[in-house]
Protein backbone atom coordinates (compact mmCIF):
# COMPACT_ATOMS: atom_id res chain seq x y z
CA UNK A 1 0.00 0.00 0.00
CA UNK A 2 1.19 3.46 -0.85
CA UNK A 3 1.06 6.13 1.78
CA UNK A 4 1.36 9.86 2.17
CA UNK A 5 0.98 10.05 5.91
CA UNK A 6 -1.65 9.00 8.41
CA UNK A 7 -4.92 8.19 6.69
CA UNK A 8 -3.47 8.99 3.25
CA UNK A 9 -3.06 5.52 1.81
CA UNK A 10 -3.43 4.61 -1.82
CA UNK A 11 -4.39 1.29 -3.33
CA UNK A 12 -1.75 -0.73 -5.13
CA UNK A 13 -1.79 0.43 -8.76
CA UNK A 14 -1.60 -1.99 -11.67
CA UNK A 15 0.84 0.39 -13.36
CA UNK A 16 2.31 3.83 -12.72
CA UNK A 17 -0.91 5.08 -14.39
CA UNK A 18 -3.11 3.91 -11.51
CA UNK A 19 -5.87 3.72 -10.59
CA UNK A 20 -5.08 5.14 -7.17
CA UNK A 21 -7.36 5.43 -4.16
CA UNK A 22 -6.95 8.60 -2.16
CA UNK A 23 -8.93 8.55 1.04
CA UNK A 24 -10.55 11.48 2.87
CA UNK A 25 -9.55 14.30 0.52
CA UNK A 26 -10.51 17.54 2.23
CA UNK A 27 -12.95 19.87 0.54
CA UNK A 28 -15.11 22.82 1.55
CA UNK A 29 -15.10 23.43 5.31
CA UNK A 30 -15.39 20.02 7.05
CA UNK A 31 -16.41 18.00 4.00
CA UNK A 32 -14.23 15.20 2.61
CA UNK A 33 -14.54 12.51 -0.08
CA UNK A 34 -12.65 9.40 -1.13
CA UNK A 35 -11.38 9.63 -4.70
CA UNK A 36 -10.23 7.17 -7.35
CA UNK A 37 -7.66 8.83 -9.61
CA UNK A 38 -6.09 7.81 -12.93
CA UNK A 39 -3.48 10.05 -14.59
CA UNK A 40 -3.36 10.52 -18.37
CA UNK A 41 -1.74 7.70 -20.36
CA UNK A 42 -0.89 9.88 -23.37
CA UNK A 43 1.08 13.05 -22.84
CA UNK A 44 -0.14 16.33 -24.26
CA UNK A 45 2.31 18.26 -26.40
CA UNK A 46 1.50 21.44 -24.50
CA UNK A 47 2.84 21.54 -20.94
CA UNK A 48 0.62 24.40 -19.78
CA UNK A 49 -1.68 23.57 -16.88
CA UNK A 50 -4.56 25.41 -18.56
CA UNK A 51 -4.36 23.04 -21.55
CA UNK A 52 -4.84 19.90 -19.44
CA UNK A 53 -8.26 18.35 -18.89
CA UNK A 54 -9.77 16.70 -15.81
CA UNK A 55 -12.72 14.31 -16.11
CA UNK A 56 -14.90 14.48 -12.97
CA UNK A 57 -17.20 11.46 -12.57
CA UNK A 58 -20.10 10.96 -10.15
CA UNK A 59 -21.37 7.38 -10.16
CA UNK A 60 -24.75 5.83 -9.46
CA UNK A 61 -26.29 3.54 -6.91
CA UNK A 62 -24.45 0.26 -6.26
CA UNK A 63 -21.14 1.59 -7.65
CA UNK A 64 -18.47 1.40 -4.94
CA UNK A 65 -15.05 -0.09 -4.23
CA UNK A 66 -14.84 -3.73 -5.41
CA UNK A 67 -14.51 -5.24 -1.93
CA UNK A 68 -17.67 -3.44 -0.79
CA UNK A 69 -19.66 -4.57 -3.81
CA UNK A 70 -18.45 -8.14 -3.36
CA UNK A 71 -20.06 -8.38 0.09
CA UNK A 72 -23.45 -7.17 -1.14
CA UNK A 73 -25.69 -9.72 -2.79
CA UNK A 74 -27.44 -7.16 -4.99
CA UNK A 75 -24.26 -5.32 -6.02
CA UNK A 76 -22.18 -8.41 -6.78
CA UNK A 77 -23.72 -8.87 -10.23
CA UNK A 78 -22.44 -5.46 -11.36
CA UNK A 79 -18.86 -5.81 -10.13
CA UNK A 80 -17.38 -4.92 -13.52
CA UNK A 81 -18.77 -1.40 -13.07
CA UNK A 82 -17.15 -0.75 -9.70
CA UNK A 83 -15.57 2.66 -9.22
CA UNK A 84 -12.06 1.55 -10.15
CA UNK A 85 -13.13 -0.19 -13.34
CA UNK A 86 -15.24 2.84 -14.21
CA UNK A 87 -12.12 4.99 -13.83
CA UNK A 88 -10.23 2.67 -16.18
CA UNK A 89 -13.09 2.75 -18.68
CA UNK A 90 -13.02 6.55 -18.67
CA UNK A 91 -9.23 6.57 -18.95
CA UNK A 92 -9.40 4.50 -22.13
CA UNK A 93 -11.98 6.89 -23.58
CA UNK A 94 -10.07 10.02 -22.49
CA UNK A 95 -6.40 8.93 -22.65
CA UNK A 96 -5.06 12.51 -22.45
CA UNK A 97 -7.11 13.53 -19.40
CA UNK A 98 -6.90 13.19 -15.64
CA UNK A 99 -9.66 10.87 -14.42
CA UNK A 100 -11.23 11.73 -11.05
CA UNK A 101 -14.00 9.49 -9.70
CA UNK A 102 -15.59 11.00 -6.59
CA UNK A 103 -17.02 8.41 -4.23
CA UNK A 104 -20.27 9.28 -2.41
CA UNK A 105 -19.80 10.25 1.20
CA UNK A 106 -22.43 7.64 2.16
CA UNK A 107 -23.51 4.30 0.69
CA UNK A 108 -26.75 3.54 2.53
CA UNK A 109 -27.36 -0.20 2.85
CA UNK A 110 -24.29 -0.57 0.61
CA UNK A 111 -26.59 0.34 -2.27
CA UNK A 112 -27.80 3.96 -2.35
CA UNK A 113 -25.24 6.60 -3.32
CA UNK A 114 -25.63 9.73 -1.20
CA UNK A 115 -23.64 12.79 -2.33
CA UNK A 116 -24.42 14.86 0.77
CA UNK A 117 -21.27 16.93 0.32
CA UNK A 118 -22.68 18.27 -2.96
CA UNK A 119 -26.48 18.08 -2.60
CA UNK A 120 -28.69 17.40 0.38
CA UNK A 121 -30.74 14.21 0.29
CA UNK A 122 -32.54 11.56 2.30
CA UNK A 123 -31.34 8.08 3.24
CA UNK A 124 -31.96 6.83 -0.31
CA UNK A 125 -30.05 9.72 -1.87
CA UNK A 126 -33.16 11.45 -3.26
CA UNK A 127 -31.99 15.06 -3.67
CA UNK A 128 -33.35 18.20 -2.07
CA UNK A 129 -31.91 20.87 -4.35
CA UNK A 130 -31.22 24.32 -2.92
CA UNK A 131 -30.01 27.53 -4.61
CA UNK A 132 -26.66 27.27 -2.83
CA UNK A 133 -25.07 24.30 -1.09
CA UNK A 134 -21.45 25.26 -1.90
CA UNK A 135 -21.10 22.22 -4.17
CA UNK A 136 -18.85 24.10 -6.61
CA UNK A 137 -16.65 25.39 -3.79
CA UNK A 138 -16.36 21.84 -2.49
CA UNK A 139 -15.33 20.58 -5.94
CA UNK A 140 -12.68 23.28 -6.27
CA UNK A 141 -11.19 22.47 -2.85
CA UNK A 142 -11.18 18.76 -3.65
CA UNK A 143 -9.19 19.38 -6.83
CA UNK A 144 -6.70 21.60 -5.02
CA UNK A 145 -6.07 19.16 -2.17
CA UNK A 146 -6.03 16.15 -4.49
CA UNK A 147 -3.20 17.75 -6.46
CA UNK A 148 -1.21 18.31 -3.29
CA UNK A 149 -1.77 14.78 -2.04
CA UNK A 150 -0.65 13.23 -5.35
CA UNK A 151 2.49 15.35 -5.50
CA UNK A 152 3.41 14.50 -1.89
CA UNK A 153 3.58 10.74 -2.49
CA UNK A 154 7.23 9.60 -2.82
CA UNK A 155 8.04 8.62 -6.39
CA UNK A 156 9.81 5.39 -5.43
CA UNK A 157 6.73 4.12 -3.58
CA UNK A 158 4.53 4.46 -6.67
CA UNK A 159 7.09 2.88 -8.98
CA UNK A 160 7.93 0.02 -6.60
CA UNK A 161 4.30 -0.90 -6.08
CA UNK A 162 3.61 -0.62 -9.81
CA UNK A 163 6.58 -2.86 -10.64
CA UNK A 164 5.44 -5.51 -8.16
CA UNK A 165 1.90 -5.46 -9.51
CA UNK A 166 3.15 -5.65 -13.11
CA UNK A 167 5.44 -8.57 -12.29
CA UNK A 168 2.61 -10.44 -10.57
CA UNK A 169 0.31 -9.84 -13.53
CA UNK A 170 3.02 -11.05 -15.94
CA UNK A 171 3.56 -14.21 -13.88
CA UNK A 172 -0.17 -14.94 -13.92
CA UNK A 173 -0.33 -14.42 -17.68
CA UNK A 174 2.70 -16.66 -18.25
CA UNK A 175 1.27 -19.42 -16.07
CA UNK A 176 -2.05 -19.21 -17.86
CA UNK A 177 -0.35 -19.38 -21.27
CA UNK A 178 1.72 -22.41 -20.18
CA UNK A 179 -1.39 -24.16 -18.87
CA UNK A 180 -3.22 -23.47 -22.11
CA UNK A 181 -0.28 -24.83 -24.13
CA UNK A 182 -0.17 -28.02 -22.05
CA UNK A 183 -3.89 -28.52 -22.49
CA UNK A 184 -3.55 -27.92 -26.23
CA UNK A 185 -0.78 -30.54 -26.52
CA UNK A 186 -2.80 -33.06 -24.48
CA UNK A 187 -5.72 -32.83 -26.88
CA UNK A 188 -3.65 -32.75 -30.08
CA UNK A 189 -4.60 -36.33 -31.02
CA UNK A 190 -8.34 -35.74 -30.69
CA UNK A 191 -10.68 -34.85 -33.52
CA UNK A 192 -10.36 -31.32 -34.89
CA UNK A 193 -13.87 -30.17 -34.01
CA UNK A 194 -13.70 -31.37 -30.39
CA UNK A 195 -10.18 -29.94 -30.11
CA UNK A 196 -11.42 -26.56 -31.25
CA UNK A 197 -14.27 -26.48 -28.74
CA UNK A 198 -12.00 -27.61 -25.89
CA UNK A 199 -9.49 -24.87 -26.67
CA UNK A 200 -12.28 -22.32 -26.64
CA UNK A 201 -13.51 -23.49 -23.24
CA UNK A 202 -10.02 -23.50 -21.75
CA UNK A 203 -9.46 -19.96 -23.04
CA UNK A 204 -12.58 -18.79 -21.24
CA UNK A 205 -11.50 -20.47 -18.01
CA UNK A 206 -8.11 -18.78 -18.28
CA UNK A 207 -9.76 -15.37 -18.65
CA UNK A 208 -11.82 -15.99 -15.52
CA UNK A 209 -8.72 -16.90 -13.54
CA UNK A 210 -6.93 -13.76 -14.65
CA UNK A 211 -9.98 -11.69 -13.75
CA UNK A 212 -9.90 -13.07 -10.21
CA UNK A 213 -6.20 -12.40 -9.69
CA UNK A 214 -5.71 -9.06 -11.38
CA UNK A 215 -7.75 -6.27 -9.81
CA UNK A 216 -7.84 -3.64 -12.52
CA UNK A 217 -9.60 -5.25 -15.47
CA UNK A 218 -12.90 -4.59 -17.21
CA UNK A 219 -15.22 -6.93 -19.05
CA UNK A 220 -17.17 -6.08 -22.18
CA UNK A 221 -20.81 -6.92 -22.81
CA UNK A 222 -19.88 -10.32 -24.20
CA UNK A 223 -17.91 -11.28 -21.09
CA UNK A 224 -14.46 -10.83 -22.65
CA UNK A 225 -11.72 -9.47 -20.40
CA UNK A 226 -10.43 -5.98 -21.28
CA UNK A 227 -7.09 -5.25 -19.66
CA UNK A 228 -6.41 -1.66 -18.57
CA UNK A 229 -3.18 -1.27 -20.56
CA UNK A 230 -3.05 -2.96 -23.94
CA UNK A 231 -0.45 -2.88 -26.67
CA UNK A 232 -2.69 -1.56 -29.40
CA UNK A 233 -4.72 -4.73 -29.95
CA UNK A 234 -7.71 -6.38 -28.32
CA UNK A 235 -7.30 -8.81 -25.43
CA UNK A 236 -8.31 -11.71 -27.67
CA UNK A 237 -5.64 -10.83 -30.25
CA UNK A 238 -2.99 -10.53 -27.58
CA UNK A 239 -3.98 -13.89 -26.13
CA UNK A 240 -3.64 -15.46 -29.56
CA UNK A 241 -0.26 -13.80 -30.00
CA UNK A 242 0.80 -15.14 -26.61
CA UNK A 243 -0.17 -18.67 -27.64
CA UNK A 244 1.53 -18.39 -31.01
CA UNK A 245 4.61 -16.83 -29.40
CA UNK A 246 4.83 -19.70 -26.91
CA UNK A 247 4.48 -22.27 -29.68
CA UNK A 248 7.11 -20.49 -31.78
CA UNK A 249 9.47 -20.35 -28.82
CA UNK A 250 9.00 -24.08 -28.17
CA UNK A 251 9.59 -24.89 -31.84
CA UNK A 252 12.65 -22.68 -31.93
CA UNK A 253 14.05 -24.32 -28.80
CA UNK A 254 13.52 -27.77 -30.33
CA UNK A 255 15.19 -26.66 -33.55
CA UNK A 256 18.19 -25.29 -31.67
CA UNK A 257 18.50 -28.49 -29.64
CA UNK A 258 18.36 -30.56 -32.82
CA UNK A 259 20.95 -28.36 -34.48
CA UNK A 260 23.26 -28.61 -31.48
CA UNK A 261 22.98 -32.40 -31.40
CA UNK A 262 23.53 -32.61 -35.16
CA UNK A 263 26.49 -30.27 -35.07
CA UNK A 264 28.17 -32.22 -32.25
CA UNK A 265 28.07 -35.34 -34.44
CA UNK A 266 29.27 -33.48 -37.48
CA UNK A 267 32.31 -32.06 -35.66
CA UNK A 268 34.04 -35.44 -35.74
CA UNK A 269 33.09 -35.99 -39.39
CA UNK A 270 33.58 -32.69 -41.13
CA UNK A 271 34.58 -29.32 -39.62
CA UNK A 272 33.48 -27.43 -42.77
CA UNK A 273 29.96 -28.84 -42.48
CA UNK A 274 29.92 -27.71 -38.86
CA UNK A 275 30.82 -24.15 -39.79
CA UNK A 276 28.15 -24.14 -42.50
CA UNK A 277 25.55 -25.41 -40.07
CA UNK A 278 26.44 -22.80 -37.45
CA UNK A 279 26.08 -20.04 -40.00
CA UNK A 280 22.70 -21.43 -41.05
CA UNK A 281 21.64 -21.58 -37.41
CA UNK A 282 22.60 -17.94 -36.88
CA UNK A 283 20.70 -16.95 -39.99
CA UNK A 284 17.62 -18.80 -38.76
CA UNK A 285 17.82 -17.10 -35.37
CA UNK A 286 18.17 -13.69 -37.03
CA UNK A 287 15.17 -14.41 -39.26
CA UNK A 288 13.12 -15.47 -36.21
CA UNK A 289 14.06 -12.29 -34.36
CA UNK A 290 13.21 -10.15 -37.38
CA UNK A 291 9.86 -11.88 -37.87
CA UNK A 292 8.97 -11.51 -34.17
CA UNK A 293 9.90 -7.83 -34.28
CA UNK A 294 7.84 -7.37 -37.42
CA UNK A 295 4.75 -8.95 -35.84
CA UNK A 296 5.07 -7.10 -32.50
CA UNK A 297 3.54 -3.60 -32.61
CA UNK A 298 5.65 -0.84 -31.00
CA UNK A 299 3.98 -0.09 -27.69
CA UNK A 300 5.04 3.56 -27.79
CA UNK A 301 3.03 4.18 -30.96
CA UNK A 302 -0.37 2.85 -29.96
CA UNK A 303 -3.34 4.67 -28.48
CA UNK A 304 -5.02 2.92 -25.52
CA UNK A 305 -8.77 2.67 -26.08
CA UNK A 306 -11.43 0.49 -24.53
CA UNK A 307 -12.96 -1.81 -27.13
CA UNK A 308 -16.25 -2.27 -25.23
CA UNK A 309 -18.87 -4.16 -27.21
CA UNK A 310 -18.20 -2.41 -30.51
CA UNK A 311 -17.44 -4.96 -33.20
CA UNK A 312 -15.30 -2.48 -35.12
CA UNK A 313 -13.10 -1.44 -32.20
CA UNK A 314 -10.49 -4.12 -32.78
CA UNK A 315 -10.13 -3.09 -36.39
CA UNK A 316 -9.88 0.55 -35.37
CA UNK A 317 -7.08 -0.16 -32.91
CA UNK A 318 -5.27 -2.28 -35.46
CA UNK A 319 -5.64 0.56 -37.95
CA UNK A 320 -4.03 2.97 -35.52
CA UNK A 321 -1.11 0.60 -34.99
CA UNK A 322 -0.66 0.19 -38.75
CA UNK A 323 -0.84 3.91 -39.38
CA UNK A 324 2.02 4.52 -36.97
CA UNK A 325 4.48 2.23 -38.72
CA UNK A 326 7.90 3.65 -39.52
CA UNK A 327 7.36 3.62 -43.27
CA UNK A 328 3.98 5.42 -43.29
CA UNK A 329 4.16 8.01 -40.50
CA UNK A 330 2.59 11.43 -40.96
CA UNK A 331 4.16 14.52 -39.28
CA UNK A 332 1.40 14.73 -36.67
CA UNK A 333 1.84 11.06 -35.74
CA UNK A 334 5.60 11.54 -35.51
CA UNK A 335 4.98 14.20 -32.87
CA UNK A 336 2.71 11.80 -30.99
CA UNK A 337 5.44 9.16 -31.11
CA UNK A 338 7.98 11.61 -29.70
CA UNK A 339 5.60 12.58 -26.89
CA UNK A 340 5.12 8.92 -25.97
CA UNK A 341 8.87 8.36 -25.91
CA UNK A 342 9.09 11.19 -23.39
CA UNK A 343 6.28 9.58 -21.43
CA UNK A 344 8.09 6.26 -21.20
CA UNK A 345 11.32 7.93 -20.03
CA UNK A 346 9.49 9.48 -17.06
CA UNK A 347 6.47 7.39 -16.02
CA UNK A 348 5.38 9.99 -13.48
CA UNK A 349 5.42 12.92 -15.91
CA UNK A 350 1.76 13.54 -15.05
CA UNK A 351 2.81 14.98 -11.67
CA UNK A 352 4.70 17.85 -13.32
CA UNK A 353 2.87 21.14 -12.76
CA UNK A 354 -0.10 19.21 -11.40
CA UNK A 355 -2.82 21.71 -10.52
CA UNK A 356 -6.16 20.10 -11.28
CA UNK A 357 -8.36 23.03 -10.27
CA UNK A 358 -6.79 25.05 -13.11
CA UNK A 359 -7.44 22.38 -15.74
CA UNK A 360 -10.35 22.32 -18.14
CA UNK A 361 -13.17 20.40 -16.49
CA UNK A 362 -15.54 17.81 -17.94
CA UNK A 363 -18.35 16.85 -15.55
CA UNK A 364 -19.99 13.42 -15.93
CA UNK A 365 -22.91 12.09 -13.93
CA UNK A 366 -24.23 8.55 -14.25
CA UNK A 367 -27.67 7.57 -12.89
CA UNK A 368 -27.85 8.88 -9.30
CA UNK A 369 -24.66 10.89 -9.90
CA UNK A 370 -26.65 13.22 -12.17
CA UNK A 371 -28.17 14.84 -9.06
CA UNK A 372 -24.78 16.50 -8.49
CA UNK A 373 -24.83 17.98 -12.00
CA UNK A 374 -28.38 19.25 -11.36
CA UNK A 375 -27.21 20.92 -8.14
CA UNK A 376 -24.42 22.58 -10.10
CA UNK A 377 -27.09 24.09 -12.41
CA UNK A 378 -28.83 25.62 -9.38
CA UNK A 379 -25.55 27.12 -8.22
CA UNK A 380 -24.66 28.39 -11.71
CA UNK A 381 -27.87 30.41 -11.59
CA UNK A 382 -27.21 31.62 -8.06
CA UNK A 383 -23.69 32.80 -8.88
CA UNK A 384 -24.52 34.33 -12.26
CA UNK A 385 -27.77 36.12 -11.43
CA UNK A 386 -28.31 36.41 -7.66
CA UNK A 387 -24.70 37.26 -6.73
CA UNK A 388 -23.18 38.60 -9.97
CA UNK A 389 -20.59 40.68 -8.08
CA UNK A 390 -19.09 37.59 -6.45
CA UNK A 391 -16.17 36.65 -8.71
CA UNK A 392 -14.69 33.97 -6.43
CA UNK A 393 -16.00 31.10 -8.53
CA UNK A 394 -15.86 32.72 -11.97
CA UNK A 395 -12.54 31.11 -12.85
CA UNK A 396 -13.77 27.62 -12.02
CA UNK A 397 -17.01 28.12 -13.96
CA UNK A 398 -15.13 29.33 -17.02
CA UNK A 399 -13.10 26.09 -17.08
CA UNK A 400 -16.11 23.78 -17.35
CA UNK A 401 -16.25 22.85 -21.03
CA UNK A 402 -18.65 19.87 -21.10
CA UNK A 403 -21.35 18.27 -18.96
CA UNK A 404 -22.59 14.70 -19.55
CA UNK A 405 -25.86 13.28 -18.22
CA UNK A 406 -25.72 9.47 -18.50
CA UNK A 407 -29.16 7.92 -17.94
CA UNK A 408 -29.98 10.12 -14.97
CA UNK A 409 -32.42 8.91 -12.34
CA UNK A 410 -33.15 8.60 -8.62
CA UNK A 411 -35.82 7.23 -6.30
CA UNK A 412 -37.86 10.44 -6.07
CA UNK A 413 -40.85 11.34 -8.21
CA UNK A 414 -39.67 14.74 -9.44
CA UNK A 415 -36.54 16.74 -10.26
CA UNK A 416 -34.83 13.91 -12.08
CA UNK A 417 -34.10 16.49 -14.79
CA UNK A 418 -34.03 20.28 -14.45
CA UNK A 419 -37.07 21.82 -16.17
CA UNK A 420 -37.02 25.41 -14.88
CA UNK A 421 -36.63 27.79 -17.81
CA UNK A 422 -34.68 30.38 -15.82
CA UNK A 423 -32.11 27.80 -14.68
CA UNK A 424 -31.70 26.42 -18.20
CA UNK A 425 -31.33 29.92 -19.63
CA UNK A 426 -28.42 30.50 -17.27
CA UNK A 427 -26.91 27.16 -18.26
CA UNK A 428 -27.21 28.10 -21.94
CA UNK A 429 -25.53 31.47 -21.43
CA UNK A 430 -22.49 29.73 -19.93
CA UNK A 431 -21.79 28.20 -23.37
CA UNK A 432 -20.64 24.77 -22.24
CA UNK A 433 -21.36 21.67 -24.32
CA UNK A 434 -24.23 19.54 -23.00
CA UNK A 435 -24.49 15.82 -23.75
CA UNK A 436 -27.36 13.46 -22.91
CA UNK A 437 -26.99 9.66 -23.17
CA UNK A 438 -30.03 7.52 -22.37
CA UNK A 439 -31.35 3.95 -22.29
CA UNK A 440 -34.92 2.60 -22.23
CA UNK A 441 -34.41 1.65 -18.57
CA UNK A 442 -35.00 5.28 -17.55
CA UNK A 443 -36.97 7.00 -20.32
CA UNK A 444 -39.25 4.16 -21.42
CA UNK A 445 -40.37 2.90 -18.01
CA UNK A 446 -44.15 3.33 -17.75
CA UNK A 447 -43.94 2.93 -13.98
CA UNK A 448 -41.92 6.17 -13.79
CA UNK A 449 -43.38 8.37 -16.55
CA UNK A 450 -42.11 11.59 -14.98
CA UNK A 451 -38.54 10.74 -15.96
CA UNK A 452 -39.45 10.62 -19.65
CA UNK A 453 -41.47 13.85 -19.41
CA UNK A 454 -38.76 15.77 -17.53
CA UNK A 455 -35.98 14.63 -19.85
CA UNK A 456 -38.04 15.69 -22.85
CA UNK A 457 -38.59 19.15 -21.34
CA UNK A 458 -34.91 19.46 -20.42
CA UNK A 459 -33.67 18.52 -23.88
CA UNK A 460 -36.22 20.37 -25.98
CA UNK A 461 -36.03 23.58 -24.01
CA UNK A 462 -32.25 23.68 -24.29
CA UNK A 463 -32.60 23.16 -28.04
CA UNK A 464 -35.06 26.01 -28.27
CA UNK A 465 -32.61 28.18 -26.35
CA UNK A 466 -29.94 27.23 -28.95
CA UNK A 467 -27.76 25.52 -26.36
CA UNK A 468 -25.03 23.21 -27.77
CA UNK A 469 -26.73 19.96 -26.78
CA UNK A 470 -26.58 16.43 -28.19
CA UNK A 471 -28.87 13.53 -27.31
CA UNK A 472 -28.27 9.79 -27.82
CA UNK A 473 -30.62 6.91 -27.04
CA UNK A 474 -28.73 3.62 -26.69
CA UNK A 475 -30.04 0.02 -26.75
CA UNK A 476 -33.41 1.17 -28.07
CA UNK A 477 -34.01 -2.23 -29.67
CA UNK A 478 -33.26 -4.18 -26.48
CA UNK A 479 -35.45 -4.89 -23.45
CA UNK A 480 -35.14 -2.30 -20.70
CA UNK A 481 -33.22 -3.76 -17.77
CA UNK A 482 -30.68 -2.73 -15.17
CA UNK A 483 -27.73 -4.21 -17.06
CA UNK A 484 -28.32 -2.08 -20.16
CA UNK A 485 -28.63 0.87 -17.79
CA UNK A 486 -25.08 0.22 -16.57
CA UNK A 487 -23.84 -0.51 -20.07
CA UNK A 488 -24.62 3.03 -21.12
CA UNK A 489 -21.13 3.66 -19.73
CA UNK A 490 -19.72 1.37 -22.43
CA UNK A 491 -21.86 2.97 -25.15
CA UNK A 492 -20.86 6.45 -24.05
CA UNK A 493 -17.14 5.58 -24.10
CA UNK A 494 -17.52 4.00 -27.54
CA UNK A 495 -19.11 7.22 -28.74
CA UNK A 496 -16.16 9.23 -27.42
CA UNK A 497 -13.80 6.71 -29.00
CA UNK A 498 -15.50 7.17 -32.39
CA UNK A 499 -15.14 10.95 -32.14
CA UNK A 500 -11.46 10.55 -31.27
CA UNK A 501 -10.98 8.33 -34.32
CA UNK A 502 -12.62 10.96 -36.53
CA UNK A 503 -10.34 13.66 -35.15
CA UNK A 504 -7.28 11.50 -35.82
CA UNK A 505 -8.40 10.96 -39.39
CA UNK A 506 -8.82 14.69 -39.86
CA UNK A 507 -5.33 15.27 -38.47
CA UNK A 508 -3.89 12.71 -40.87
CA UNK A 509 -5.71 14.38 -43.75
CA UNK A 510 -4.37 17.77 -42.73
CA UNK A 511 -7.72 19.43 -41.99
CA UNK A 512 -7.67 22.71 -40.09
CA UNK A 513 -9.14 22.87 -36.56
CA UNK A 514 -12.08 24.91 -37.95
CA UNK A 515 -12.83 22.18 -40.48
CA UNK A 516 -12.58 19.53 -37.77
CA UNK A 517 -15.01 21.43 -35.55
CA UNK A 518 -17.44 21.90 -38.43
CA UNK A 519 -17.28 18.20 -39.35
CA UNK A 520 -17.79 17.15 -35.71
CA UNK A 521 -20.77 19.49 -35.50
CA UNK A 522 -22.25 17.94 -38.61
CA UNK A 523 -21.81 14.45 -37.17
CA UNK A 524 -23.38 15.46 -33.87
CA UNK A 525 -26.27 17.15 -35.69
CA UNK A 526 -26.99 14.03 -37.73
CA UNK A 527 -27.00 11.98 -34.53
CA UNK A 528 -29.38 14.47 -32.92
CA UNK A 529 -31.78 14.20 -35.86
CA UNK A 530 -31.63 10.42 -35.73
CA UNK A 531 -32.24 10.35 -31.98
CA UNK A 532 -35.06 12.87 -32.23
CA UNK A 533 -36.80 10.78 -34.88
CA UNK A 534 -37.09 7.96 -32.36
CA UNK A 535 -39.16 10.13 -30.05
CA UNK A 536 -42.16 10.03 -32.43
CA UNK A 537 -43.92 12.56 -34.55
CA UNK A 538 -45.85 14.08 -31.68
CA UNK A 539 -42.96 15.99 -30.09
CA UNK A 540 -43.36 19.07 -32.28
CA UNK A 541 -47.01 19.51 -31.31
CA UNK A 542 -46.02 19.81 -27.65
CA UNK A 543 -43.61 22.71 -28.15
CA UNK A 544 -46.32 25.35 -27.83
CA UNK A 545 -47.06 24.31 -24.24
CA UNK A 546 -43.41 23.66 -23.36
CA UNK A 547 -42.77 26.81 -21.34
CA UNK A 548 -45.96 26.53 -19.29
CA UNK A 549 -45.35 22.86 -18.57
CA UNK A 550 -41.75 23.47 -17.52
CA UNK A 551 -42.63 26.22 -15.10
CA UNK A 552 -45.43 24.10 -13.64
CA UNK A 553 -43.16 21.11 -13.06
CA UNK A 554 -40.54 23.26 -11.36
CA UNK A 555 -42.97 24.46 -8.70
Characterize the structure shown.
The protein has 555 residues and is α/β, with parallel strands linked by helices. It folds into 2 domains: 2-154 and 351-554, 3-Layer(aba) Sandwich (Rossmann fold); 172-186 and 195-345, no CATH class. 51% of the residues lie in helices and 12% in strands. It contains 18 helices and 14 strands. The chain has helices spanning 66-70, 83-93, 135-152, 155-186, 192-213, 235-269, 271-295, 313-323, 331-345, 370-386, 394-399, 421-429, 440-443, 449-464, 482-486, 488-509, 513-533, 546-554, and strands at 2-3, 9-10, 20-26, 32-38, 53-58, 98-102, 106-108, 112-114, 218-219, 225-226, 360-366, 400-406, 433-438, 469-473. An 8-stranded mixed beta sheet has the order 3-4-6-5-11-12-13-14, sandwiched between helices. α10 crosses α12 and α14 packs across α18. It is globular. The two termini are 50 Å apart. Mean pLDDT is 73; it is low at 1-12, 194-275, 291-331, 339-344 and 529-555. InterPro entries: C2orf69_mit.
